[in-house]
């Protein structure tokens, strides 16, 4: 935690994190011009290097055995073509492949056209309420509030609210320390008991006076120009109802999983959300950093706080639910690539799969909700893009069990063919992520995309089917 604190202070104070070669600390090079890029270089440990080498050798071995087993693959294909079930399966597979390939090409086209909206002047910036809900975050909530206070945002237009959600550790102490340091610049509140993040945000929404609400997780650090970049789209686009920030990993030098997730986050945000933003239909504004027009929030706040699923109160997916309800109102939801936030991610397998289960359950719930309006006249402008994005997500959920069953069958009947073809597929598909990250940030770090894909394919393949069948269950899971 102490090393993260040092990093975060440099990050939000100077905008540039440098490293001493002897200390081998990370480099964050974030220029202050309007077309800033983030350059992240981290030395790879011996164990990390061993994992990368082993991953690459494994993938090459898989590709080699696909070549060696080519006669067996040909025989398998002939057997499928000689059966009705095989032909149906092949037809569905080809159709899905063409759709996914077409969507990838479309997203790539949108990404290449995307440009973040430039920051507006101080005079044009709207009043802004930043809400930081905190639960058992300890000193990191103090660092979060300090980074927000250091923002390049007119002080008289910025309201900071810190809300302790009944923490059991020293979180409230550190919130009080922030109050001592910042004085009237921050208002602090303590929930009488732990009621969940949604209720903490709800209190903040009702207390806030800003034209724009910004929500920031209490384990996240923002750059000096993050807030002004994040809220500028509301000034430029009067139909903008919400904006997603650009999330990267804070603790990615502490463990292997955060290193993998950092590459995954860059693909998820800077590629996918850039494409979604071009359609005005970003499907999820992240809890780590998001902004909402206050009128849009109040238009759906009663529905949001009282949301249920299968008769049970919804205590997860508050960010995706808010995004969904704002999209339903006909607003645009955009992404600002130049609004950076660093956030903590799980460092253990158990913490990671619990986080993914929570996300998976929320995805199922909100896709069902989105189905109720996405094919209706919910927006005056074109709705084709939003419908395509929804269809892609819906098909992914719909085909989860058929392909899961097929995978189990394939493993049971042709284990070597499955293993070699899966590894070759990972090598081919993940190469785009490697190229994308290497071009924007670091070649050395980009290879974690391969390791992450191998890890997810063989270690987390069960998350999607499990999340679907348990979508009704409550619980944050990662709160201890």
Automatic annotation (TrEMBL):
The keyword Glycosyltransferase applies. InterPro entries: Nucleotide-diphossugar_trans. Its main location: membrane. Gene3D superfamilies: Spore Coat Polysaccharide Biosynthesis Protein SpsA, Chain A. It comes from the Bacteria. The chain crosses the membrane at residues 49-67, 87-109, 394-412, 418-438, 450-469. Keywords: Cell membrane, Glycosyltransferase, Membrane, Transferase, Transmembrane, Transmembrane helix. It is found in: Cell membrane. This is Glycosyltransferase family 2 protein. It comes from Flavobacterium endoglycinae. The lineage of its organism: Bacteria, Pseudomonadati, Bacteroidota, Flavobacteriia, Flavobacteriales.
């Amino acid at each position: 935690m102490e090393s993260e604190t040092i990093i975060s202070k440099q990050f939000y104070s100077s905008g540039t994190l440098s490293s001493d070669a002897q200390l081998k600390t990370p480099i964050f090079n974030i220029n202050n011009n309007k077309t800033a890029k983030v350059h992240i270089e981290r030395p790879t440990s011996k164990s990390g290097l061993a994992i990368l080498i082993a991953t690459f050798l494994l993938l090459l071995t898989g590709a080699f055995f696909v070549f060696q087993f080519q006669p067996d693959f040909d025989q398998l294909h002939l057997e499928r073509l000689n059966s009705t079930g095989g032909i149906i399966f092949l037809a569905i597979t080809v159709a899905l492949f063409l759709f996914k390939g077409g969507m990838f090409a479309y997203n790539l086209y949108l990404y290449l056209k995307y440009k973040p909206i430039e920051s507006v002047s101080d005079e044009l910036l709207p009043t802004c309420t930043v809400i930081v809900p905190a639960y058992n975050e300890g000193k990191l909530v103090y660092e979060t509030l300090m980074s927000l206070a250091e923002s390049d945002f007119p002080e008289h237009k910025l309201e900071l609210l810190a809300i302790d959600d009944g923490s059991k550790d020293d979180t409230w102490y550190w919130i009080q320390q922030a109050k001592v340091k910042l004085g009237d610049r921050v208002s602090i509140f303590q929930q009488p008991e732990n009621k969940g993040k949604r209720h903490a945000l709800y209190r903040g929404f009702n207390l806030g006076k800003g034209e724009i609400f910004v929500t920031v997780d209490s384990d996240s650090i923002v750059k000096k120009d993050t807030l002004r970049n994040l809220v500028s789209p509301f000034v430029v686009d009067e139909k903008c109802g919400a904006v997603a920030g650009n999330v990267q990993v804070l603790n990615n030098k502490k463990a292997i999983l955060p290193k993998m997730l950092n590459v995954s986050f860059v693909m998820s945000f800077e590629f996918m959300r850039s494409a979604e933003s071009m359609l005005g239909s970003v499907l999820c504004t992240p809890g780590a950093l998001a902004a909402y027009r206050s009128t849009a929030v109040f238009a759906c706040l009663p529905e949001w706080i009282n949301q249920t699923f299968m008769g049970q109160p919804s205590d997860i997916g508050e960010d995706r639910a808010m995004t969904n309800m704002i999209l339903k109102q006909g607003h645009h939801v955009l992404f600002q690539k130049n609004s950076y936030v660093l956030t903590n991610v799980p460092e253990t397998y158990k913490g990671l799969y619990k986080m993914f289960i929570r996300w998976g359950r929320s995805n199922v719930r909100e896709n069902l909700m989105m189905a109720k309006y996405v094919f209706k006249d919910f927006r005056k402008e074109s709705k084709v893009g939003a419908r395509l994005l929804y269809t892609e997500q819906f098909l992914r959920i719909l085909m989860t069990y058929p392909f899961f069953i097929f995978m189990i069958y394939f493993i049971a009947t042709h284990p070597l063919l499955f293993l070699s073809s899966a590894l070759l597929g990972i090598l081919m598909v993940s190469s785009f992520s490697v190229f994308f990250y290497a071009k924007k940030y670091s070649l050395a770090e980009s290879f974690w995309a391969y390791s992450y894909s191998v890890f997810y394919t063989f270690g987390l393949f069960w998350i999607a089917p499990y999340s679907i069948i348990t979508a009704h269950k409550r619980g944050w899971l990662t709160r201890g």
